[in-house]
Amino acid sequence: MTDLLKPQVGERCNDPACGTFGFMIAASQYIKDRTDQFFDLDSDMAKFEKYEAFTGCELVHDTHRLALMNAMLHDIRGKIIFGDTLSNVGKELKDYDLVLTNPPFGTKKGGERTTRDDFTYPTTNKQLNFLQHIYRSLKADGKARAGVVLPDNVLFGDGDGEKIRADLLDKCNLNMVLRLPTGIFYAQGVKTNVLFFTRGKEDKGNTKEVWFYDLRSNMPSLGKTTPLLREHFADFEKAYTAEDRHSVKDERLSVFTIDEIRERGNSLDLGLIHEEKAVDFVELGDPIEAAEEAIANLSEAIDLIQSIANDLKRLEEVEA
C-alpha cells in the first residue's frame, strides 16, 4: 500500500487507527530511502519530516505506548494521540495528503453509535465510520489519497452503508478495490479488501469508474504454513500502475462504470471471477477454519441485530 501510494516529501501522513504505528513507519522509511535518510533535504524540511509528517491516533493504552516506542526507535517524533478517532477527538485529524490504515473490525460496544458529532451518517458500524472519517480527513485538492483495509460488509451493506459509499464515490475517485484472500486478517472467515481512493477538488462526481482486482478466487489456501507474500501481488501491482488499465490482459482485473455501480444500489461487492476449482472431499478444508468462519458470520449477524434493536428502541422513545 505504501509503495503504490508513494508518500512524498512535505506531505502530511496519518493513520487514524495506528496500532503500533507500522504504516507510518513504512511511509517514513519510503521517503528516507529516497532522500538519503533526509540528508538530501534542507534543515527545515528534514525537521518537518521528523516532527510533523507522520502522525496517528490509537485508542488502546498499551498499544499507544508501543506506538510511541516504535516511533521513537525509528526516529519519528510526530504526534500520536491517545484517544478515539470516532469521538470528537478525531475532529482535529484533518487536511492530510495521505492516509494509510487498517481500522478495527466490528461494532461499538453494545451496538452504540459513534459519539462523533460531525458525521453525516453516524452508524454503529466502526468501519463505515472510519471510512467517513478518512475521506473527510483528506485535503480536497485532487491529490490527497488513501489506502484502507476494510471487510466485505462495507462493500454491500444497505441503509447508511449505501449512503456512505455514495458519498465516497462522489467526494473521491475510488480508483481500485483489491479483493484480498480470506484468512490473512483476523479469523479465517473474515473477508477483506483494500480501497484506494483520491479526494477530489469538488464534492460531486469524482468517480467515473471503479477497477477491481480479484486476489481471492482460485488462490492457494493461505495461512500459517503458506503465508501471503509480496510476490502474490506482482500482477496486481502491474495492473495498478499501468498507464492504461484497459490494455492490461489479466482475468483478475475488471472495471465497472459509476452508472453500473449505481444500478446495483452503490454496491462495491463486485469483481470476483468464477471459482474454477472443483470442490471435493480433499479440498473441504480444515474443520477448525470452517468453525471460525461460522463464528465470524454469526458475530456479524448478532451485531446487525443489536444495531436494529437499538434503532427500534430509539424510535419507541421518540414516539413516546
Characterize the structure shown.
The chain starts with a helix and ends with a helix. The chain is of the alpha/beta class and 320 residues long. The protein has a nine-stranded mixed sheet, sandwiched between helices. Helix 5 (126-137) packs parallel to helix 7 (160-171). The protein has helices spanning 2-5, 22-34, 43-51, 61-73, 126-137, 153-156, 160-171, 234-241, 258-263, 287-319; strands at 13-15, 54-58, 80-82, 98-101, 145-151, 172-179, 192-199, 209-214, 253-257. The longest helix has 33 residues, at 287-319. 36% of the residues lie in helices and 15% in strands. It is globular and about 60 Å long.
**How would you spell out the order of helices and strands?**
HEHHEHEEHEHHEEEHEHH
The major β-sheet equals: 9 strands, mixed
Mean pLDDT: 88
Shape annotation = globular
Q: What is the topology, as strand order, of the major beta sheet?
A: 3-2-1-4-5-7-6-8-9
Alpha-carbon distance between the two ends: 50 Å
